[in-house]
Amino acid sequence: MRKFYLFVGAPLIVALVVLVLVACQTDQPGEATGLGELLEAGGAHLEAGEYAEAVADLEAAVEIDPDSSEARFLLGQAYNRTGELLQAADEFRAVLDLDPDNAAAHHNLGVTYFQLQDPSAAIAEFEAALELDPDDPDTHYQLGATYLVLALPGGGAMTSPDPQLLEQAIAEFEVALDLEEDMPEALIGLGNVYIQQAEYAAAIGVLQRAVEQMPTSPEAY
């Protein structure tokens, strides 16, 4: 199943694994009628960036079969891409009611909670995803990014970063990099942690590696 993906401080959703067969040509809205056709059309619209059309097809699919975890998973993605985050969270929770061992749904729900500015709930979902799929570098990265955000001062009583949360962020970024060496997002996250720890030489080193892997990313500069 697909998972969402985001950079530290800048949400970015990337499809990682194709769930359904994508049509060779994108169907026009209203053409698909059966469940399979609606799922295929909705997936095609998602791939094409036609999110409103995807929502229409996938809402129709869920109406036909409310117990289709596939339809609800894709609809959650479509809602997220149109900014309907509460509806997206509802769909991912519905997927988990139908399929409690769905690691990708836990992952995507975690990202959605992060976008809803509920990092504690996001951490719980990422941890649940890792219990089911401990070798997923993307979820380790997301968990590290969330720890980093929680570690930063929020303008309240905390005036300096939380050192324990920074160490937890480092641990997750390092696991992600052990699992997937070419992961510039994790390097950028690690560099941000080192900056917070005033370890500037270490930060420069990992950010230079990130630039080499992803030279067009402004996050690495």
CATH superfamily of the largest domain: Tetratricopeptide repeat domain
Shape verdict = elongated
Distance between the termini: 32 Å
Coarse structural class = mainly alpha
CATH class of the largest domain: Mainly Alpha
What order do the helices and strands follow? HHHHHHHHHH
- Main sheet properties: none
Number of strands: 0
Low-confidence stretches: 5-30
CATH topology of the largest domain: Serine Threonine Protein Phosphatase 5, Tetratricopeptide repeat
Describe this structure in words.
The chain is mostly helical and 221 residues long. The protein folds into 2 domains: 1-118, Tetratricopeptide repeat domain (Serine Threonine Protein Phosphatase 5, Tetratricopeptide repeat); 135-221, Tetratricopeptide repeat domain (Serine Threonine Protein Phosphatase 5, Tetratricopeptide repeat, Alpha Horseshoe), CATH 1.25.40. It has 10 helices and no strands. The protein has helices at 35-48, 51-64, 69-81, 85-98, 103-115, 119-132, 137-151, 163-179, 184-196, 200-213. Helix 3 packs antiparallel against helix 4. The longest helix is centred in the last third of the chain and has 17 residues, at 163-179.
Give the arrangement of secondary structure elements:
Blueprint lengths: L34 H14 L2 H14 L4 H13 L3 H14 L4 H13 L3 H14 L4 H15 L11 H17 L4 H13 L3 H14 L8
Would you summarize the structure shown here?
By secondary structure, the protein is mostly helical. The protein has helices at 35-48, 51-64, 69-81, 85-98, 103-115, 119-132, 137-151, 163-179, 184-196, 200-213.
